[in-house]
Design goal:
alpha/beta
Length: 244
Amino acid sequence: MILVEHANAIVRDAFGEFGEHIHVLTSFQREGLVIIDLALRANPNCKIVTIDTGRLPVATLKMMELVESHFGIPVDRIQPDAAEVEAMTSLHGMDLFRESVANRMLCCEVRKVRPLKRLESGAKAVFVGLRRGQAQSRAEVPVFERGAGLVRVSPLAEWSAEDVLQYTKDRGLPEHPLYAANYRTIGCEPCTRAVLAGEHERAGRWWWEDEADKECGLHFSADGRAMRKVDFLLSELLNQVTAK
């Protein structure tokens, strides 16, 4: 109860600061549904936004429709630039993310990060479902993360996975069907798998990258060396788009 009250206070503070210029950014995992519920109870007109990368599981596409029906709201879908996707896949192949961390980060940059930047023209902040217990890279995530671009607000920063599940049950929220298949984190279809017994909840992301942080760049950057390589690959890609 105390965690819920604290999360509600964070949501109210965020609306007080940003008004209509803060949206919910979600991929329809449990955390995202909790935040949608909290945000809409505080402000029924809050905009709900998702990034449709073009590689999402069919179950996630169906989940979008279920969320729209359950809450009675539209979900705004942001998509990557078609020309950038075409250039990336022509240069590196459809499944380039298997080749290296830098290639995977490039794919995330084109399909997730760059589309999100288009939100900055109409939004100042987004609610996100980050929790400090999700991964070591998220252990110190601030509730209000202020930097370049959108402010990220994490009302569930102090929650555990069990807290999220309990709220989900208490409020009767829809659940992504892949949880029933033992998924604990859900992203693009080729980059997410079910977790095995004893594995950390984010072990199902990019499992072939044994030493890399399980982050896409949407909330956290990779190490400097990988990002320098991504910058080079992105420049090459954009040059090809411009040349056409």
